[in-house]
Amino acid sequence: MLQAIRSKATSFVVKLLFGLLIVTFGIWGIGDIFRSRGPDTTVATVGGMDISADQVNQAVQTQLERLRGLFGGSIDADQAKQLGVVDQALQQIVSQDLIDLEIKRLGLAIGDETVRDAITANPAFHNEQGAFDRDLYAQVLLNNQMTEAQFEQTQRQDLLKAQLTGALSDGMTPPKELVDALYRARAEKRVAATITVPASALGAPPTPTDAELDTFYQAHKDDFRTPERRTFKVALLRLEDVAAGIAVSDADLKSAYDQRQDEFHTAEQRQLQQMLLPDEKTAQEAEKQLAAGTDFATVAKTVAKQTDPGALDLGWEKRDDLPTELADAAFALKQGGVSAPVKSTFGWYILRLVAIKPEQTQSFDQVKDKLKDEVQKDHASDKLADIANNIDDALAGGASFDDVAKKYAMKIVPAAAVDADGKDASGKAVDLPNSQTILKTAFSTDANQTSPLSELGDDGYFMVAVNSISPATTQPLADVRGAAVTAWQADQRQQALQKLADAMTTEVNGGKSIADVAAEHKLSVETTAPLQRSGNDPKVPPALVAKIFDAKKGGAVDEVSGDTAVVAQLQSVEPADPAKDPQAVQDLQQQLSGVFQTDMMDQYDQALRKTFPVSVDRSSLDHLL
Known about the structure:
Blueprint: H1 2-7, H2 11-18, E1 22-25, E2 30-33, E3 42-46, E4 49-52, H3 53-71, H4 77-82, H5 85-106, H6 112-121, H7 134-143, H8 148-169, H9 176-187, E5 189-198, H10 210-219, E6 225-226, E7 229-238, H11 239-244, H12 250-259, E8 265-266, E9 269-277, H13 280-291, H14 296-302, E10 313-318, H15 324-330, E11 342-344, E12 347-357, E13 360-361, H16 364-396, H17 401-407, E14 411-418, H18 435-442, E15 449-450, E16 454-455, E17 460-470, E18 473-474, H19 481-509, H20 514-520, E19 525-527, H21 542-550, E20 556-561, E21 564-574, H22 582-611, E22 614-616, H23 618-622
Antiparallel strand pairs: 1-2, 3-4, 3-22, 5-19, 5-21, 6-18, 7-14, 7-17, 8-13, 9-10, 9-12, 11-12, 15-17, 16-17, 20-21
């Protein structure tokens, strides 16, 4: 995005580019992330419908935000491609377009009443009392830059898709025999007698001979490697630094204030009460009772059946926040006045004006500091682009890192002996802004070389000069002898534990009681709680649980986990009866139904691809991100 700013460095263009918003519309869990792009490119077609690069990019950014939320940190473009995010995003769009085309072919339609019912039933538009709140509805749409007409059309399309896909998948239920069999396998429980063998039961670990240690070291050299480390310095050109050095006169601030009057003006607001009535006849009855002097809240309760007092209060509203028909009625009222019934998408409204907040305008002195900061950043955006272009020219002309950094007052951040994870020799993370981006550049730049100027997110630019590179090396045995001895002893301990556990298991399977085997080694026997396949006993390693469920009654198995071994003998099996846990069986049936439905929709998707051919421009897709 900053590259585009540099190519068209004017305040107007900069403001337009930075004005693009990241909009997350939580009703469907869809985040549409708009970014500045060049001319749109078609990357795929579905039955004659084009899918643009911008559409795919938006879907990719949404997926990346979800992945970052799950795993933390940042995921760059290369990682996204390796994870298949781009292809997954495209296929999701293709599948949606296929459904849209099939809906059109079948001539499916949804009535206005169905759309209205779906909107009023949506919890996203309910107040704390659980009732539909028109004020909240309008605010959500406003926050997401959608009109009611746009949202209702989107809702209509979603309902059509649900109608079509539901007709295909609703009948997909698994047979009872399958559900019961799977339930029995999952819910079966087993009890085992166990012996826990600690590493201390083996005695002190031996000391390796020189030959043994050398053999171990040669087989595990990778465990004794130091990572590649780089010493470099970063020069930062940031918007905030450039802005701080820009002087802005009071005259310029006053001019900006005059040009942005709308920003500092608050329109008149009106506090309203509302009642929503289902039809004109009921609305007329409410109007009649109000005219006779009946209290507004009473009419709302008895005629409009609004039993929740909270649903009465519409709150403070500006004219632009309301649909035209309601705004006209509300802003024609005098304080305490009640409107005539007004028809809208959701029924008939009657409004009451409770109070008025007159329009207000903040004075120049009130917003002067804020204006200064914003004007400085506006000017800095233009200047930043010019400086970046000049730096590019200087580097291309052979200027050194230090000369460029000094000339353009770039902030220098040193980094000594840093590995690719951004940690120094002591293991401490170095303090770098947007560290993953800088580290990636530092580790792709040769020694004694300067990187090109690169974007630092939306905050500015940076360049890196790599002073030295210490390649990854295997440390000599003499330097890591202590660590090698410790690792050898741990390996020997692990092998000895496994050997002892195997021997004890063999004895039990040979007919010796598990109690006698434990006594021989001065250990005790414990009985587990009834175990499930999922593993519900912290003393029993999950891998051992799996072995217990594969064992026959009386059979012994073992598992080494860390510095402990556990020997187990299966004592009893508790079969599961589906008839005794109908709720769990029902939950399992629903899970399986979901799997069946997903499989059905996958098959339907493949069938639609034969009806509406899909073609992908692989070259254009590969150039995304």
